[in-house]
Amino acid sequence: MSPLVRRLSGVLAQRSGQALGVGLVVSVLCWLAVQRLPGDAAYRIAAGRYGHDLVTTSSAEAVRAELGLDRPAWQQLLAWLAAVPRLDLGESMVTSRPVVTELGHHLVGTLQLAAAALVVAALIGVPLGLLAARRPGGLLDRVTIAWVASVRALPPFLLGLLLVVLFSVHLGLLPAAGDGTPASLVLPATTLGAGLSGLVARMTRDVVVEVRASEYVGFARTKGLPDGGVTRRHVVRNAAVALVPYLGAQAILLVEGVVVVESLFAWNGLGHALVHAVFWRDVPVLQGTALVLGLVVVAINTAVDLAVVWLDPRPRNRGAAA
Amino acid sequence: MSLAPLLQSDPAPTGGHPAAPGRRTAGRTVRALSAVTLLALVGFALAGPVLLADPAQQDLSRFLEPPTLAEPLGRDDFGRSVLARLAHATRLSLVLAALSVATALLLGTLTGLLAGWRGGWVDAVLRGISEAFVALPALLIVLLFAALAAGGSLWTLYVGLALAQWVEYFRVVRARSARVLATPAVEASRLLRLGPLHVVRRHLLPELRGTLATLASLGMVTAILAMSTLGFVKVGLQPPRTELGLMVTEAFPHYDTAPWMALAPVAVLFLLTVALLGLRRTEVTR
Amino acid sequence: MTTLTIDEVTVHHGATRLVDAVDLRLEAGVPLTVVGESGSGKSLLAHALMGTLPGELRVAGRMALGGTPYDLATRPGRGLWGSRLAMLPQEPSLALDPTMRVRPQVAEGASVRRPGSRAARRAADRALDGLGLADAAHAWPHQLSGGMAQRVAYAAATVGGVDVLIVDEPSKGLDEAAVDRIADLLTAHLARGGLLLTITHDLRLARRLGGELLVMQGARVVDRGPGRTLLDEPTHDYTRALVAAEPTRWKHEWMATTRDPGASPEPLVSASGVTKGYGATTLFRDLSLEIGTGERWALVGPSGVGKTTLGNALLGLAPVDHGEVRHHPALAPGRAQKLYQDPVLSFPRRVALGSALGDVLRRHGVDRKRPERLMESVGLAPDLLARRPDQLSGGELQRLAVVRAMLLRPALVFADEPTSRLDLLSQERTMDCLMTEVDASGCALVLVTHDHGLAAAVTDRQVTLGAQRGP
After folding, report:
1. For C315, how many CA atoms within 13 A lie in the half-sphere containing its CB?
2. Listed residue (B223, B220, B232, B208) closest to B277, CA to CA
């Protein structure tokens, strides 16, 4: 096995293990949540099936026998866990629709929002970071640090509220709630993207400054290479190698931000569904959305790991941050 | 081209800090201001609930009363004293954040030291557990636990917050302690038979202290913001409990008629996070 | 015929003068070597010429290259990089871009405007071929040894055919064979009519290069003249001290001691048939060795050959794959001590040195007077104990490490390249301290070094580990 293939398979093995762990934690917690729901599970499910008024003791007992709700707890847990890989995520307790189909709709919405937000974050953050890196310690550098600090201190929902107040209520330019139109994507994407841009700017700046001050860039210069050549041939690739692992950390912030922003703007996505599921104690949907969100993070980090393996030829390099 | 290696063989090494004197005093001023602000907020949180009016006491005749001398922050839509509610909300945020951060720090540090010291299968097992948690954003874990909480129980919230944060301490402590334990200094102390307590006291603690303090203040910010987000979406923290995010949600419909109602919790949130962030000992970057 | 002259170069950092009014003249085919201790300013001189000094330092002086005058304050070197001036980096393994293969990096030196062109690639291939590195053209920098990286850097810097080559401490971290190879390359550059300025504290290299010699001390040039004369028959006091500091010329009391072979029949450490390897490489195989009381052993060989690993195995700090290492009961825990190559790393970083020593004293109930006496005999002032490790010079810290090691009256001291980072004078002083104490206490010594002269001066028994790796 060539070293490259070995490293790639190592990455895949580790990340699969992580996906498994994520699935385990989420499923166990959701199972606990189900146990803590008030009332009798059998009656609840029967009510969901036949309607509240038509539930009788016999139908509830039939449900109990059918779903094995009188088995010891650990057996129920195992059955619950076994259902997940089969993609048998049950039905929503609120809408009675299969969770899997609902997840499909929500996933699309979340991906749209996430992609737009990342574009916004890159458009703001990367140029800011590059400009700040030009003169470390200079005015723009300090402005960037101040920007990062203030964005850090402002929770996304406050920023969102501010933007809604400004653009929707007062200026009437953009819709405040998500209705699937591109215009309604602007405010949520901007809110999320602005929050992420601070970190992007800071990381870009730090990495570029460090690469520029390295020995190999100095040697490339003394060889007589002009600045443009140095940047193209040396700075860009090494900066990418250092920056890519940080993107893994971004994934977590992205998912957290998605949950908040979707709730604020009522954008139809996984985060919105998750919060509603918590509110209504709709555990199957809760499990489904939490699982997908966790796996999205794992997927992003896997992509990051693979990119690092491709970019950096050194045998042992830093893995993604998550 | 950095200055340090060229000057390293200077006959009179100073071994001073890399920061210019101006930057250092600026850093110290920021930290001092942050500490003062934080102390003021803590004082408000502790003294307020004792000295001020009952936050749950409604008086609908004083609906959305503007600020007066007796009531500096006015009253909200149920006629309750905004100032009193603010004090209780601040106390809740600070107490819950502090408890969860302390728990996460203790748990993460102990497991991290264990993993870094022992290595082998202990390390592998702990690392595997941490990997599962690391991919789950803190908010997600807290939301999952909020689903467990029967109608706003604070205990489950505390557990959720602590579990959401311990992984960070674990990873940092594990990486740092593994590095420190591999240095020649620790090997030399082993040859000198100085014992494990010496290693902890002289090698590990000085190395970890600074980072743990930074992580703790960042953790407080994360916890407070997570709680305010929960309050904002009315999950896990529900009325009539007073919480900063919850207050923002409740105030939002009235922001044009009674701006003080929304501004007060926002201001406190902002001050809290800025003060906690300012406490960190930031390293000077080149 | 090109010449390079420099008049009245000064380098300031704030009010401190780091290089003071140096004049020098480089001629084609005649090497000029600047020697001196660390901190004498010789490195700064080279960087001032090249124009690579950091912005905080102020340069003044005049330079004339082939008749064209330049003002050094404007850092004219920048415009001449690659075309007329080239500098070999001090740490070649750090100077190569880790994400780029070797050939393109050399090709950059061949054509800075079009480094990707076929002509540039061909020139790079030719250069690498001439250095015996044709196989390395497609390698990544992390796959190269220190010596190979040094030669790749040489290729990259000189493939464009520059006039002036400035070399700063080329022998750093390299063993004698690698240094000889570099000396060959530098001589070849001179033979092509190039100009060479070498900065080094390695007198052996200076002798090998020949030509003119400049001796710097405390920012000034204190002696100059033909290298052979200065090094063989030094007249100036400082030059004489420098030359005397070469290990081959040492004369110390502890060198003459003959140890009684019948002192103890049982050896302190006996290793039988030990083998150790890392991955696919075997470092040593089936080695057997016995170290008796008071004996002085040297483990010599080129870099990376496993000397430190063998020493660690003998001390019981590292396991061996096969074979056995037995310790005499006299070598109880605590009676074997180690000195490290980088003394800064061997003390707790954020703790005052006095506290670190105090821990040892308290733990073992050693009397306070003992470290005081030891410090006095190694020439360290007591107020140094209030400082932290990074606030002492390398030589001072290593001598303090000797004090710490001797506190427990060890039976065996393992010195792992204790002076390879020090210049000649510091090295002599430190080894003198160490050996005086070793002599006085009668303990055994295992010294790891790649300097054969040092090994011969300090020890009387040697184990040579062969070079199984490439150059």
Report:
1. 31
2. B220
Could you give the domains of chain B? 92-277 (1.10.3720.10)
Chosen CATH of C3-244 out of 3.40.50.1820, 3.40.50.2000, 3.40.50.300, 3.10.20.30: 3.40.50.300
Topology adopted by domain C253-464? Rossmann fold (3.40.50)
Q: Considering chain C, tell me which residue range(s) the CATH 3.40.50.300 domain(s) occupy.
A: 3-244, 253-464
Asked if the C-beta of C109 comes within 8 angstroms of chain A's C-beta atoms, the answer is: yes
User: For B286, which residue in chain A has the nearest alpha carbon?
Assistant: A136
The sheet that has C269-278: what strands, in order across it?
C281-291, C269-278, C322-327
Determine which of B191, B198, B286 to mutate to test the interface with C (most C C-beta atoms within 10 Å).
B191
**Nearest CA to CA, how far is A275 from chain C (Å)?**
45
Q: Looking at this predicted complex, what is its ipTM? A: 0.76
A43: tokens are 């009656």
How confident is the prediction along chain B (286 residues), in pLDDT tens digits per residue? 444 444 443 332 333 334 455 666 777 888 888 889 888 888 888 888 888 777 777 777 777 777 777 777 777 777 788 888 888 889 988 999 999 999 999 999 999 998 888 878 888 889 888 888 888 888 888 888 877 766 667 888 888 889 888 988 998 898 888 888 888 899 999 898 888 888 888 898 888 888 888 889 888 888 888 888 888 877 777 777 888 888 888 887 777 777 778 888 888 888 888 888 888 766 533 3
The candidate with the shortest Cα–Cα distance to C184, out of C219, C144, C154, C149, is C154
Locate C361 and state its tokens: 């004293």
Instruction: Give CA separation, C16 vs B19, C8, C13, C390, in Å.
Output: 19, 16, 5, 21
Tokens (6 digits) for C220: 């000034």
CB contact under 8 A, A223 and C94: no
Separation CA A155–CA B248 (nearest Å):
12
Q: How far is A177 from chain B (nearest CA, A)?
A: 15
Phi, psi at A273, each rounded to 5°:
-65, -40
pLDDT of C1 reads 64
B140 has a chain A CB within 8 A of its CB: yes
Residue of A nearest to C84 (CA): A224
Amino acid residing at C205: L
Given strand C58-65, what is the order of strands in its sheet? C16-27, C3-13, C58-65, C68-71
Predicted TM-score (pTM) of the model is 0.78
Instruction: Verify whether the Cβ–Cβ distance A223 to C82 is below 8 Å.
Output: yes
